[in-house]
Design brief:
- This protein has one domain (12-62, 102-212).
- The chain contains 7 helices and no strands.
- The protein is an all-alpha fold.
């Protein structure tokens, strides 16, 4: 009886039909798998490009303001003539305006890359630490020194009293820490990062910013 019920399994067409069905199912599954892989690769590549763009813009706008401030400082210390000092002041003012103009756009790039929690951390470091506690004192110090006019001794005393060199060193350290933080934290929003690794990276990043930025 069992032989009668299963004899159709030995029919030549059964293998053809089963092979067709299995090939179709497996083929579809395999095709979908590779399509998903390609989409993930494209997403990772786009995330890497977005991260690179945000960090480059952040680094560029900070570097321009820092360099122009350093050149102005150098001109004051070397007692440059009127035209050279005026040029240094104007270029510094242009960089100051550019920093304020481009800062909102940079923060928007960060917000697109980071989770709300991580964005708040970076935004605070950018606005309060880098802008409020480093760039702002540097600007105030340079302005106070310029107000001393041609009195070189008073200029140098003013620069020394506000610890301008320490501020510049802190500026470089904090800027670097924030750039690294954005790069690292952008990865934590990815579904490919294990939860434990994500939490550890966030903690390490917070500690790094706390140490590097006032």
């Amino acid at each position: 009886m069992n032989t009668d019920k299963t004899h159709w399994l030995r029919h030549p067409l059964v293998n053809v039909v089963l092979g067709f069905i299995l090939t179709g199912v497996l083929g579809t599954a395999i095709t979908q798998h590779f399509m998903d892989q390609r989409e993930q690769e494209k997403l990772r590549a786009q995330m890497a490009l977005d991260r690179k763009e945000a960090i480059q813009q952040f680094s560029r706008v900070n570097a321009e303001r820092k360099v122009r401030a350093e050149l102005l400082l150098q001109a004051m210390r070397e007692n440059s003539n009127g035209d050279e000092l005026k040029t240094a002041i104007q270029e510094y003012e242009n960089a100051y305006v550019a920093w304020n103009v481009e800062r909102p756009g940079t923060l928007l790039l960060f917000r697109d890359l980071l989770s709300p929690e991580n964005y708040h951390l970076v935004e605070k470091g950018f606005e309060e630490s880098l802008g409020g506690k480093i760039f702002s004192p540097i600007r105030g110090c340079l302005s106070s020194a310029l107000a001393q006019g041609d009195d070189r001794q008073a200029v140098n005393q003013t620069l020394e009293s506000c610890r301008i060199d320490e501020l510049f060193e802190l500026l470089g350290t904090c800027s670097q820490a924030l750039a690294v933080a954005v790069s690292d934290l952008a990865e934590t929003g990815s579904e490919w990062v294990v939860t434990e690794d994500r939490m550890e990276l966030q903690k390490r990043t917070r500690d790094s910013i706390s140490k590097a930025c006032p």
